[in-house]
């Protein structure tokens, strides 16, 4: 494990290799809906929302190999050569280039230092540095050399480039680029043209009607919130065991089970309002595209006091509508909230980001004894800041050792720290309790 207590300094590139690229699909146009939504999130959170990471390079990898890989990526994925432009009224536009030159930075790790610690520090530095989305190409790639040999790679991009599933597609295609499918899906410029046309406007009008009906069930905004904004992590082994058992018993998708538990765990009266992150990749042309096509949905379900089985059905029906109508113009959604005088930040924002267990759990279905024997989850607060996260949000990821990791974000003026921790702990306790009741 690298020593991260004292990152190596200074982080100054030894050389910058100019990488020239070309690619099809150039033009300037409106942001597609997915791009527009993540742009609004970036503004709200005052962050360019860096994505990417670092990796070890395969032995024998040369700087020319990395430069060729970067050139291939820029040619294949239009979003990696897309920068912002602004209309006279301040509206952001996407500008896709058909050629250009990007810098590949090369850093020399000092002899005697740990190259892994060096690339970790470099990756963190590149995430923290401001990003000029108008002038910079939307990719920062850097190679770390150790004793003259390329050993590690850091790649950082703004979230405007792609969503999480697109990121996994990009990594898989880069790893096997000689065999990559030529079909890359519908790029955002084409998406935006369709969205502005008759079919896109019909889709938007239908989606807005769903949002208006659901917004009518949301209470008016409470007093203005002011933070602090907190981030915490809840690691639980009992919850995945219980969700496995419940999803098998009910013959229901595990995401539906988790959404139902979240809905029942929410404090307060009235319908449980959920804002799931929806992958729009089931739509034509979106399956393989490396772009931001995920958007927030909206659903509301009355689950207070209901048996779990009935709550599961109600949340499932509401979620299906949310998935169908998450493909929508974010500006039209904002207008619908404003017209209704409803809280645009209402509800629990949730994002099921699991990979390993999203399509099903491995192994035998746990019985009540195994679920009951699992220790309670552990919780810790990790960040407190002035800049906002999403108002009240839970991300769900696969953790180590068969655990689930629930990351909770809250504006403490909206839901205090104790209430946010109680929310995720109640999800676990409700799941365990339900398995025991069904045994």
TrEMBL record:
GO terms for molecular function: catalytic activity. Signal peptide: none annotated. Coiled coil: none annotated. GO terms for biological process: lipid biosynthetic process. Residues 70-263 form the Condensation domain. Pfam families: Condensation. This is Condensation domain-containing protein. It comes from Dactylosporangium matsuzakiense.
